[in-house]
User: Fold these one by one.
Assistant:
Number 1:
Amino acid sequence: MRHKREHARIIKLDATDSTNDFLKGLAGGKTLGDFTVVVAKEQLRGRGQRGSLWESEAGKNLTFSLLKYFTVLGAERWFLLNIAVSLALCEQLEALSIPNIKVKWPNDIMSGPHKICGILIENVLKGQSIQHSVIGIGLNVNQTRFGNLPRAGSLATMSGRSFDLEELLPPLLERLRTHLGVVEQRTVPQMLPAYEARLFRRDLPTAFADSSGAPFMGIIRGVSPQGTLILELEDGQRRTFDLKQVSLLY
């Protein structure tokens, strides 16, 4: 007998500081179903990588977080989640005919040189395994002005048309459900090639800054199974860098 798939439970908010924080608070206080989603019209203090703030105009964009439980996902395979979420987003944006979609390591989604989506994954461990993850996504949709963020873009600025947020969310959640549903049966080396094929500025000379802010040149050659960035430096040597050691300047 086949079990009928449950639809995601979606909690809609007018405004919250952070959908990730709201969902983590709910998960800590009671048992929530797998793939519970919190979506907010306005996120007052949305967070990105390195603690940066994610700026979003109220009612113009998709800002949501989802809760995903795991049973056999070792903590050392954490980068699988970055891969799965990035690929799901890339596929859905390409289905919407958004041009030149790439992943800026580790998990910003780009259209050409413009950042249109950010991902923040927060894992809760039990022993050496990931018990569950709170996956936050901020997708710029209908916002067209970004103040002092010249590299930011949106689906509207990249395609020249506007989108219905209510219609955008269900197919995106379905792709996320599909990709996240198989990560426990996969290894990072199995899934890395599809991720690496979409890397922003792969095989191109690119400016980076080290942890002290000093600039240097390198060429992105790939990503290690540990999720670190593989750069070929000017002397021909290859080195790996984690998120705290390097940032891409573009």
Number 2:
Amino acid sequence: MPVNLNSCCIAILVESGFEQVELTEPRNALSNAGAEVHIISPGKKMVRGWKDSDWGDWFDVTNQLEDVTVSDFDALVLPGGVFNTDELRRNKQAVAFVGEFFTNGLPVGAICHGPQMLIEAKVVKDQRLTSYDSLRTDLENAGAIWVDASLGLENGLITSRHPGDMDHFIEGLISEFARANRHPVLIRT
């Protein structure tokens, strides 16, 4: 049964240097499922992706982080990208924003280096999750239970290792976001 996420509002939190495909493919899939998807960034009107081994495309920021609250959204997606997560985890407002999704019991998806934000927000203790393999020690030191799997699903947290896991990641996002959506609509075909 296809899922309609028409009443679901999703934030994608990024800085420049995010892995481009880790923003575009989830955004497109969630939008195609009916969700309203917003690109959120601290203090920026445009952000630039990282594509393969060089800078990628520019993307309009829907809302600046300073202008939104967690209550505006039903779920959060954290793309990876080394530059992206390194900038975001040094921003106290961005870290607090991520933490509030967990405080409010809202689902969060993080792929590749995205789980670095979960470490900074101090929300990984005793969570079973996956990430890019170079984060394993950092996650375990923060109390996470790291697994080498294409998809981690636990307590509303959806994680994947890298773009090669994208199909599983998107499937997990749509499934968990529909389950947690305040007003889900299922469409029978």
